[in-house]
Every structure is written in structure tokens, then in C-alpha cells.
Amino acid sequence: MFQYPRLHVVDDRFTRRLKWNGSIHSEDLQDMSVVITNVTYDHAGTYMCRVNRTLIFESHDYNTNITKFIEVTVVDKGNRDAASIVSEIMMYVLIVVLTIWLVVEMIYCYRKIAAAGEEAVLENASDYLAITSESKDNCLGVQPQE
């Protein structure tokens, strides 16, 4: 029997094997799951899970009583279902595709910035040359004699 936040084990087979995996540090239990660690073939069987939860509001109390029967089957090694395998493959494919996209985007932006930088250098150089040739003509306010 598990009564949040205390644990009282009725069956000796589960002593130091049950771990609370539900809502932590909260009186409002949204997740009421328990994990069994170090499972052996002795743990196979049908178990009854009884939940008695009371939510206390200002105007009323809301009580929930649920009883579920859980069939536990112990196997040598857990089999991964197809969904987990496909999702793992898709995750790696997505990482590769996004990395390639990022590299292409960086090259595109670098070329665009480099091209804009060359144009700016050429414009600034021609402006500088134009200014210097004008100021050269009017050096110290002296006009060339004709």
C-alpha cells in the first residue's frame, strides 16, 4: 500500500522495490504512478490498484475512488515497440537535416554579407577619390591660373 507521501509495503516481495514516480512536493496529485525496480519472475501476476483521492475546495469536497486491476508480465528483455524505433530514427534524420540547412544558410548569409561589403568598399573608395580630387583642385583656396 502506498499512501502519499508515506509508503507502507504489505507484500514483502516489494520491500525497497517501489519508488514514487508521481507528482512530487505537491498535495494535489496529478500523476499517481509508482515504479517497481529490480523486477523478477516472482512479481508476475495480477495486482489491484485502489486510488482514493479527495480534492478540498472552499464550497465542497470532491472525492474520487477508483479500483483498477493490472496484469504484470515479466520477460527476459523488454522489446521496443515500432513507434519508439521510428521516432528515434526520425529524431536523428531531423538533426542531420537541420544541421545541413544551418550550414547552407550560413554560407548563403556569408556570401551575401561579403558581396555587400565589396560594394560598400568600392562605393567608399570612389567617394574618397572624388572628394580628394575635388579638394586637390581647391587646395588652400588657391585657384589655378589660366
What would you say this structure looks like, in words?
This protein has 146 residues and is of the alpha+beta class. The protein is 38% helix and 23% strand. The chain is built from one helix and six strands. A two-stranded antiparallel sheet has the order 1-2. Strands 3-4 form a two-stranded antiparallel ribbon. A hairpin with a 2-residue loop joins strand 1 and strand 2. The longest helix is centred in the last third of the chain and has 56 residues, at 82-137. The protein is elongated and about 85 Å long. The relative contact order is 0.06.
Question: Which sheet architecture does the biggest sheet show?
Answer: 2 strands, antiparallel
Shape: elongated
Classification by helices and strands:
alpha+beta
Q: What's the SSE pattern?
A: EEEEEEH
By DSSP, the count of extended strands is 6
Mean pLDDT: 77
Low-confidence stretches: none
C-alpha termini separation: 113 Å
Please give the share of residues in helix: 25-40%
Strand order of the largest sheet: 1-2
**Strand-residue fraction?**
15-25%
Work out the helix count.
Answer: 1
Q: Radius of gyration, Cα only, in angstroms? A: 37 Å
